[in-house]
C-alpha cells in the first residue's frame, strides 16, 4: 500500500457543491478585504518610516574632540559701536583671552552706531565663561549700552533632524532691548552632550543646554559701571543619545500575518452568526406558515 502524503494537509478543501454563497457573506468579504488593505497600508507606512529612540548614560561621547567644544555665537548690540565690542574667554584650566578675534566678524548696524558680532570659537570641556564686553577696547566708553538681541548660541555640530526636538539654541531670539542700558547680563548655562546616530551608524555630536539669567549693575574697583554680557557654562556628566531605527522585517511580517488571520477569523465568526440567525428566522417563519 502506497503512503499518501496528502494526509499531512491540514488545510482540507471543501467541495464547491457543499458550500453556499450568500449576499451577506459577499458583503462581509468585501468589507474584510477593504479593512485588511487599510491595515496593511498603515503597517507598511510605519515599516518604511524610521523612529528615534533616546537613551541617557554617563560618558564623554566625543573623545576625539581633544577636550574642545565648538561654539557659534551671533548677537546684536544696536547701541554699541563695533570698535568697542570684544569677546573674552576664561575657564578653570587657566585660559584667559581678552579680545578674541579668530573666526569672528563685526557688522556695523544703525549707520555704525550699533554692531552685530558673529563668532565661531572653541572652549575647553571645563567650567568657564565667555563674555561680550568693552574690556578689550583701547578706551572705555563713558556709558556703554549693553542692550542686545541674541540670534544664535549653539554648541557642537548642527543637527538638522526633524524628529529630534531639543534645546540646541535655547537663547535664540532672546531680546534684552528694554533692559537697563548699563546693566550686566548673566546667562548661566548647563551644557548637555548629545549624540545622534543615523541608520548607517554614523554619529554626530552636538550639545543642548538649559539656561537661567539675571540682570544687575556691576561696578569696577574704581567705581565705574562696566557692563558685560556673560555666558557662564558648566557641563553635565549625562549624555543624551538619539538612535535612528527602523522596524525589523520579521516584526512587519508577523503583524501582517496577524492582520490577515485575525480579520478572516473575526469576519468568519460574524458571517456564521448572521447566517445562523437568518436560518433560524426562516425556520420560525416556516413554522408560523404551517
Describe the structure.
- This protein is α+β, with helices and mostly antiparallel strands and 290 residues long.
- The chain is 23% helix and 36% strand.
- The chain has helices spanning 23-48, 249-289, and strands at residues 50-58, 68-77, 86-91, 96-97, 104-109, 114-124, 128-133, 149-156, 174-175, 184-197, 203-216, 229-235, 238-246.
- Strands 1, 2, 3, 4, 5, 6, 7, 8, 9, 10, 11, 12 and 13 form a 13-stranded mixed beta sheet that branches.
- The chain starts with 22 loop residues before the first helix and ends with a helix.
- The mean pLDDT is 86.
For the structure shown, list the relevant keywords:
single chain, elongated, 13-stranded mixed β-sheet, 290 residues, alpha+beta, 2 helices
Provide the fold topology.
Blueprint: H1 23-48, E1 50-58, E2 68-77, E3 86-91, E4 96-97, E5 104-109, E6 114-124, E7 128-133, E8 149-156, E9 174-175, E10 184-197, E11 203-216, E12 229-235, E13 238-246, H2 249-289
Parallel strand pairs: 10-12, 10-13
Antiparallel strand pairs: 1-13, 2-6, 2-8, 3-4, 3-7, 5-6, 7-12, 8-9, 8-11, 10-11
Helix pairs in contact: 1-2
Task: Give the biggest beta sheet.
Answer: 13 strands, mixed
Kindly estimate the percentage of residues that lie in beta strands according to DSSP.
35-45%
Helix-strand makeup class: alpha+beta
Low-confidence stretches: none
Tally of strands: 13
Oligomer: single chain
Helical content band: 10-25%
- Count of helices? 2
N to C succession of SSEs? HEEEEEEEEEEEEEH
Q: Distance between the terminal alpha carbons, to the nearest Å?
A: 55 Å
Mean pLDDT: 86
Question: Tell me, what's the shape?
Answer: elongated
Radius of gyration over C-alpha positions, nearest whole angstrom: 35 Å
Amino acid at each position: 500500500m502506497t503512503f499518501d502524503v496528502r494526509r499531512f494537509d491540514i488545510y482540507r478543501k471543501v467541495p464547491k457543491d457543499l458550500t453556499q454563497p450568500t449576499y451577506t457573506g459577499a458583503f462581509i468579504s468585501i468589507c474584510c478585504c477593504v479593512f485588511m488593505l487599510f491595515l496593511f497600508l498603515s503597517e507598511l507606512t510605519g515599516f518604511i518610516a524610521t523612529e528615534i529612540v533616546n537613551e541617557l548614560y554617563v560618558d564623554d561621547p566625543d573623545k576625539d574632540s581633544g577636550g574642545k567644544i565648538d561654539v557659534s555665537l551671533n548677537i546684536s548690540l544696536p547701541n554699541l559701536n563695533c570698535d568697542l565690542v570684544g569677546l573674552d574667554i576664561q575657564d578653570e584650566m587657566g585660559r584667559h583671552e581678552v579680545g578674541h578675534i579668530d573666526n569672528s566678524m563685526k557688522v556695523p548696524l544703525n549707520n555704525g552706531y550699533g554692531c552685530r558680532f558673529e563668532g565661531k570659537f572653541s572652549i575647553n570641556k571645563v567650567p568657564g565663561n565667555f563674555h561680550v564686553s568693552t574690556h578689550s577696547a583701547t578706551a572705555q566708553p563713558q556709558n556703554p549700552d549693553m542692550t542686545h538681541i541674541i540670534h544664535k548660541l549653539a554648541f557642537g555640530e548642527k543637527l538638522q533632524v526633524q524628529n529630534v526636538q531639543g534645546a540646541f539654541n535655547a537663547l535664540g531670539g532672546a531680546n534684552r532691548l528694554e533692559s537697563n542700558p548699563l546693566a550686566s547680563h548673566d546667562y548661566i548655562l548647563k551644557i548637555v552632550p548629545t549624540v545622534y546616530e543615523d541608520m548607517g551608524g554614523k554619529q554626530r555630536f552636538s550639545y543642548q543646554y538649559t539656561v537661567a539669567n539675571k540682570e544687575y549693575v556691576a561696578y569696577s574697583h574704581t567705581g565705574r559701571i562696566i557692563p558685560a554680557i556673560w555666558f557662564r557654562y558648566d557641563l553635565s556628566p549625562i549624555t543624551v543619545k538619539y538612535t535612528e531605527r527602523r522596524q525589523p522585517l520579521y516584526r512587519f511580517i508577523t503583524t501582517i500575518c496577524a492582520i490577515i488571520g485575525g480579520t478572516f477569523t473575526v469576519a468568519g465568526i460574524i458571517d456564521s452568526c448572521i447566517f445562523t440567525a437568518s436560518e433560524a428566522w426562516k425556520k420560525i417563519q416556516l413554522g408560523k406558515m404551517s
